[in-house]
Amino acid sequence: MELFANQVLAGIATGAIYACMALAVVMIYQAIDHLNFAQGEMAMFSTFVSWQLMQWGVPYWGAFVLTVAFSFAAGIVIERLLFKPLAKAPILTNVAGFIALYAIINSVAGLIWDFTIKQYPTPFGSSPFLGSQLISTHQAGMIGITLLMLLLLFFFFRFTRVGLAMRAAASLPESARLVGINTSWMIALGWGMASAIGSIAGMMIAPVVFLEPNMMLGVLIYGFAAAVLGGLTSPFGAVMGGFLVGIFENLVGTYIPGVGNELKLPIALALIIVVLVVKPAGLFGRAIVKRV
Amino acid sequence: MTAMLNVKDLRAYYGQVQALHGLSFSLNEGSLTTLLGANGAGKTTTLRAICNMVRSTGAIEFEGKPIGTRSTENVVRLGIAHVPQGRGTFTNMTVEENLQLGAISRSDTKAIGSDIERMYEHFPVLKQRYTQQAGTLSGGEQQMLAVARALMLRPRLMLLDEPSFGLAPLIVRDLFRILGKINREEKVTILVVEQNAQLALELADQAYVIETGRIVMSGNAKDIANNEDVRKSYLGY
């Protein structure tokens, strides 16, 4: 029983990484109805920016705030320059755009900061959390930050006028324009927010996976999986999906014989597919009630 | 009386297909006008052209200002509320959120709460359902909600596209009664597009009849209703 509890706890700790990234994935999906394949690279680039600021002597939280602001602005700029002109293009054109952006950001980061692995600091320290060997203070801090972001997003979408306008623009663009909402700017704002959330995810993840241009490769896939599992329409679902993927992965590795580190991830992903076959909208995806 | 909305030589296109062929009409301030015509005559396109939701040429003036080149949301922000065909309800949001959205472009946020209360007086059924997902409302209730949402803009002009579509006759009567009341009491100029000519002519004071993208008849609603030739050839009752 203690083994089980420990593995769940360790799963939650890894899951926090996925949850962080899944939150950014859902954010952009809400705004543009697509998955942004370059999301992870954008987060990686932001993390490098914060690292560079710290190298220049900016203290951690100063660099953190500056990076979030930079990422928000950069997200809006990318949307205005690249994806606004593609708004009416077929989905595949957009996908090509995402992939191009992915490759460009990855190479540019490699060019500026090279591909060697770099240490990245944590503001929470890395001692055992409450005496547990399985979860460090950094991981606990990361879980805390993820839940805080989730809470802020919930309040933003539920109780602010801009949040309401964004939801309206995402669900019915034509009706949104007819109540006077500038839907085009709502999409840009969605990009900005997704980019900002991604940067926070990057800065939280970097101390665990180390900083380098390919750090997000695996994380983004699990972030996608987590978001799809939880339901792409639900930020809460995305976070829960992240934790669940982390827990699955650990339990499968512990309890199914012959499953080592190599196999536990594919098995976790296979489990996700099983869940989606039963519940296509994801575990927490909103089922929209319609009366005809 | 001054014309609030002036439309001159309006031509609209869907791709290569021309849907309106030089349509001209005007609405007097405070009037309740109906635009009648058969399926495919161009009624919906006319409303969509006013809000710049379809490619069009010609002159559209609202309160003396040309609005032809403004984006949809900026036309709406001038005080032109448009209740589209199919109602455009935000089905996954609550009734109250739908009403909030109607007022989303207003800057006088303090008055929004009292306006919502006023909508509940016009449409008591919405008050009983204000926390409900709008998609769970019946067709008639959703149409009431669409009208209430449009009124939340505090519009000077309201465009309604086939409000009677798919509703039971009794509910249509109720809805039209409320529209008349809004026109008189709230001084909202209304343009309503209808296939249900008989009811629309009872409600309206002015009427235009449109056929294949052109105005073929205009005048006092009562005169048109009483003109047997017009009724037979264009309105089909």
From TrEMBL, chain A:
Organism name: Bradyrhizobium quebecense
PANTHER family registered for this protein in UniProt: ABC TRANSPORTER PERMEASE PROTEIN, BRANCHED-CHAIN AMINO ACID TRANSPORT SYSTEM PERMEASE PROTEIN LIVH
GO MF annotations, alphabetized: transmembrane transporter activity
One of the GO BP terms on file: amino acid transport
Transmembrane segments: 12-32, 60-83, 95-115, 135-157, 185-209, 265-289
Membrane topology reported for the UniProt record: Multi-pass membrane protein
Family: Belongs to the binding-protein-dependent transport system permease family. LivHM subfamily.
Compartments in which it is found: Cell membrane
Name of protein: Branched-chain amino acid ABC transporter permease
InterPro entries: ABC_transp_permease, BCAA_transport_permease
Main subcellular location: membrane
